[in-house]
Amino acid sequence: MRRLLQRSLLPVLLVLAGCLTVDNEGGPVLAIELLWDAQPEDDSFAASDCTGAGVEMMEWALYDDDGDEVASNTEPCADAIDVFEPDPGEYELDVTGFDENDEPLWSVTCRGLRILRFDVAFECDILGG
Length: 129
Known about the structure:
Elements: H1 2-16, E1 29-37, E2 47-48, H2 50-53, E3 57-64, E4 69-76, E5 80-84, E6 89-98, E7 104-115, E8 120-126
Parallel strand pairs: 1-8
Antiparallel strand pairs: 1-2, 1-5, 3-4, 3-6, 6-7
């Protein structure tokens, strides 16, 4: 009886513990954390969030490995971008950040964003200059 109880509780415990399951009905998420350069006029990179770097607005575009645009947006600065249900493959992200005077002080292309079938996260350092 004890062994039967242990076997019946195992799937419940795995789900509650946050273990990976095979249920992926919603498709993968490509999550990209954006780290903005707090000193865009300097040669060194000082990672910060939007507020600390002084970024007001941003434009971004995600391209697949054929160079086709998959998603894009112009929006208030954010510290992350989530793209839902991209096809498996390799992507690159172009990001440009604008200050309060609408000057494009930050820009980068993050390459090698590869997604297969499950959620994946990357970090993208957005340099000034």
